[in-house]
Amino acid sequence: MINEKLLTPKSIAVVGASNNTMKPGGKIIKNLVGNGFQGEIYAVNPHETKVQGIPSFASAEELPSVDLAVLAIPARLCFNIVKTLVEQNDTKAFIIVSAGFGEAGEEGKKLERQIVDLVDRNDACLIGPNCIGVMTPSHASVFTTPIPPLTSDGCDFISGSGATAVFIMESGIPKGLRFANVFSVGNSAQNGVEDVLAYLDETYVPGVSPRVKLLYIENIDNPDKLLFHASSLIRKGCRIAAIKAGSSTAGSRAASSHTGALTSSDAAVEALFRKAGIVRCYGREELTTVACVFMCKELKGKKLAIITHAGGPGVMLTDALENGGLKIPQIPDSPARQTLKEKLFPGSSVENPIDFLATGTAEQLGEIVDACENDFDVDGMAVIFGSPGLFPIRDVYEVLDQKMKSCKKPVYPILPSIINVKEDVAYFLSHGNVNFPDEVLLGKALTKVIHTPPPAPSELFLEGIDVDAIRKIVENAEDGYQSPEIIHQLFDAAGIPRVQEIVAKTETEAVLAATKIGFPVVMKVVGPVHKTDVGGVVLNVRNVAQVQKEFHHLNRIEGVQGVLIAQMASGIELFLGATYEQNFGHVVLCGMGGIYVEVLKDVASGLAPLSINEAQSMLRQLRSYKLLKGYRKQEGVNISLFEEIIVRLSSLLRHATEIKELDINPLLGNEKEILAVDARIRIKK
Amino acid sequence: MINEKLLTPKSIAVVGASNNTMKPGGKIIKNLVGNGFQGEIYAVNPHETKVQGIPSFASAEELPSVDLAVLAIPARLCFNIVKTLVEQNDTKAFIIVSAGFGEAGEEGKKLERQIVDLVDRNDACLIGPNCIGVMTPSHASVFTTPIPPLTSDGCDFISGSGATAVFIMESGIPKGLRFANVFSVGNSAQNGVEDVLAYLDETYVPGVSPRVKLLYIENIDNPDKLLFHASSLIRKGCRIAAIKAGSSTAGSRAASSHTGALTSSDAAVEALFRKAGIVRCYGREELTTVACVFMCKELKGKKLAIITHAGGPGVMLTDALENGGLKIPQIPDSPARQTLKEKLFPGSSVENPIDFLATGTAEQLGEIVDACENDFDVDGMAVIFGSPGLFPIRDVYEVLDQKMKSCKKPVYPILPSIINVKEDVAYFLSHGNVNFPDEVLLGKALTKVIHTPPPAPSELFLEGIDVDAIRKIVENAEDGYQSPEIIHQLFDAAGIPRVQEIVAKTETEAVLAATKIGFPVVMKVVGPVHKTDVGGVVLNVRNVAQVQKEFHHLNRIEGVQGVLIAQMASGIELFLGATYEQNFGHVVLCGMGGIYVEVLKDVASGLAPLSINEAQSMLRQLRSYKLLKGYRKQEGVNISLFEEIIVRLSSLLRHATEIKELDINPLLGNEKEILAVDARIRIKK
């Protein structure tokens, strides 16, 4: 429960303040003062009356009323200080930077819990412990540098690691990335990344609150909360990019089943991010580049113009964007193109990339941008302009700055000469712009952004799904792998089509069953475990006489308890399965069966519950999608029916979290119908 | 024909020298002087007697003998100056930075040719025109900045674009990348990228010449030369990384056939680079990161230790490396691990990543590196050490510097705090080290390097290949698609197994043919074009009686000229084809046939001629490799036979460059044999 006192306190007390700025308690004071905090700052240090010119108190008891307290003292001293402040000084917000708590063992965990209880009881909020602190446009209560530009049009940034937060800012600042609120949540004692995000969602004011959120996450404790608030913020117009570190460790976790071998909690993270509309990043450079893309105007299509004064970077950017699915369309001939061409030096190209040569001027750049904005059929522009170091190029960057502000289309500036025209680039950034020093990293970031889907709708598909029946079946089921009967009941309750099956004890029953189901049928012995090995499965039984014959044959097998008569499904072998991931819920996997899933690993995943749109996008991700649709003379499957079955399965699972593993194998489909032939379900309550 | 005068001239004349350092002719003088050129510098400027303190001559005629001339004057004046210098002043090396030549139209092309002729006739060398110049450890004859550190242990860098060369250096310098010789080849009038590389190969002295070569290429005019010298240099111990810009434009080129749709000249570039052992990069940041990897000691295995004082970057690097196929193995418990653990602060981890906490010291770092070097089973180390900005960390970087020099295993330094400890990082770089500010970009570069194969052997596989016969067949063939007879002759001459086929005119001939080939056979009508449509193909003919019956049946079809009796091949449908790429030769494509090539695009490519190793690595790249080997109950194909057929085809093609398109379809294989059933070959002379 973050509160306003944390973000915009009128007064801040630094407990453990020091004159030594190489100590955290000294650096926090320095940062607060240096960054121009407008309210009162109080120091608490028993040995000083002034700390860096700030009045210092011998103990917390002596402090006046204070909104926010930052504690940089040994862990064992923190509880009493918090108690004094929260009970006597009306302090409602705490940042504990000190280590030695939960991360250090049982003793520390206990201490941490006591402080959380105390803070909770008093309706106060706590960031940390074991963190670098918090920065907002109002105050920089951190013991680290650098302090980035803190403005309300910057990014909000929530980090599960303090050092990583520092390194991410060091990666972003040279690109001109500005920040608004930076939270280092440390041990997440009261507030983790999800909780801070929830607060930012709940207090979001369109047009006022920061629009871009960056997350660095090591553990997702509450995936539902993350999903809910990330989706909500994005629907309100925000953009979110996040790193979830640890994809490989999770990937190597031993898998419990054939399906599980393809899932992992990283698949769950991936599915969660896609569902929420979060752009997933894997490194600092990538995160800050995506953040810079977010700081530009929104790209509303896939067509870009590349404006450059140097061939090479223009070509490399074209490669990166086209390979990533964006378009660098040739500008068709037109009066506007003619007019533009006349304004450029001979030898310039007005196709696309638009190359206005090494000698190109600021004025020409302005003309090109205007033409792209008003006349050419493109959705955005990338402008590449560096310098061989002969003379300053400030005039060009001035025009670029103006155009970026006046254009409705996004303009992505690529200023590669971070050495030659360092000052000019700094001037450009000082006007609130970002810079992409490497065109290919921009290209990849843009590609990633454009391919991230919007948040999935949160409504649950319930048409024809008997939730009560599902609950009853699951509640009565025992732990372990379920019998065919229970599986059938569950599928029927969820409207998942399956082959009809009837167990016959006598020849007459067998004939009746086959007639009811319709020929051809499959006959299977009931009783023996390894049916195929004992010759207990007969496919393609086409008439009554054959049923009679096979019944007698099967009935002679040792251990026979009956004969199962089943509908004979046909078509393409499909794959549909799910595993339950602790906290996340079910990751649903789908694709074509057999080698497609086992060898080619051509599987799409999504987080239950799924919408039809999500199922659609899952299927379209498959390399084998063309085969599913029917390729050449090969019949495909009914795609919309497959989508519906995926959605139905996901709704079933959402109401049966006790199902830890589910595997429909095989699921056979053609253009008319798709039928589950066999399935495995494991329940654990 | 680059010569030594270009690299280590005793005297340099700058024609068009100026006092205005914002002009190329002024900046070149400034760079030469500023970079401490040890020989004589002469200026040529009719209006000055001194230029920037350097003696200036009114005309080239007045100059003394001079080794190298740099021309920064209008294009039309260049010929006469070169003529004077090369004929009267014993000048053997020229750099023309001026534009207005070949790139500007016909007139310029003519001028350029005249100068090349003149230079050629006089055994002199020319770089440019239309370039930024040349830098070597001896002189910086460029009109641009920055001038990177130029030392013989830096990289050689050859660029097809001047501006891009500048931007690449601006990307490399902040990482500590040093350079040796930098060539901007401009219009490549006499020397292109390949020619400069050839010179570097021919003059290579192991242990003395720069070991790392970087290339930025826009056009590969002479792929054979590039392949030959790149391979040669790499075999001598060099490492080469290159950008070939323009992958997307080429990729969109309309394809002329089903095979061609998957090929493109970019596939040829890709195949060429892989064959040569060149690490292919797609952007500046990537190129300079790979170059920094090359500057470190060679990684001789796949196991890395990650040493870090901050969790986050360690995890992200683990992800990047493990996902890229490297290993971050857990360090097993051992006395050495115990001893190390005791030297670190409580809470440190000595598994892997080795995390020695935010409070970790320089001394501890030294101990960890020593343990990784001497005791732990790893092939290299990545050390992550930044700073939250509280105090300088020079002692840590001093230890790191020493250890990097003393260790036999490579140590990759990741110093992310390029703001907080800017001076310490600069100090570290000043000791000749590189830095990887972003761990994930390092991880990707390292992955790319480790996955680039060594140069392929250059011997041609000729066992059982009748080159004379191939030449005779091709020389006698007419342009266009070839008849089955010619295709059979070619395959037989190359030892490519194919189904046996005999055309029978009578029933007796048909029976004899079938008996000779062996049952079952396929019978096809000869004459009608659409054989299948007229019922002219009969599969699986099993005995003499059936041959007789089908012969009569087929013989009744309109337009019949005979009946073809063919061996009935069976097994997995394979794909093998090739297209001829201008200058490159044949790009050979292979994979599984049908949907694997058409829908799943699971195709591997290589440049003819191929070795068995290359064919092996092509097949292993396929996602369907497991299926080729035989999956579950499904029979596979004879892999080593498939490899041999790929190699044989490539050797055939190497002797028949007139074949522009070749497509074996189908090629059927099982565990015993692989047979070409049908093929299409197009010849154009």
Automatic annotation (TrEMBL), chains A, B:
Q: Which PROSITE patterns match?
A: ATP_GRASP (PS50975)
Q: Which Pfam families match?
A: ATP-grasp_5, CoA_binding_2, Succ_CoA_lig
Origin superkingdom: Bacteria
Do you know which SMART domains this protein is assigned to?
CoA_binding
Q: Where do the ATP-grasp domain residues begin and end? A: 488-524
Gene3D superfamilies in alphabetical order:
ATP-grasp fold, A domain (3.30.1490.20), ATP-grasp fold, B domain (3.30.470.20), NAD(P)-binding Rossmann-like Domain (3.40.50.720), Succinyl-CoA synthetase domains (3.40.50.261)
> What does the record give under GO molecular function?
ATP binding; metal ion binding; transferase activity
Annotated InterPro entries: ATP-grasp (IPR011761), ATP_grasp_subdomain_1 (IPR013815), CoA-bd (IPR003781), NAD(P)-bd_dom_sf (IPR036291), Succ_CoA_lig_flav_dom (IPR032875), Succinyl-CoA_synth-like (IPR016102)
Where does the record locate the signal sequence feature?
Answer: none
Q: Which UniProt keywords apply?
A: ATP-binding, Nucleotide-binding, Transferase
Protein known as:
Acetyltransferase
Tell me the lineage of the source organism. Bacteria, Pseudomonadati, Bacteroidota, Bacteroidia, Marinilabiliales
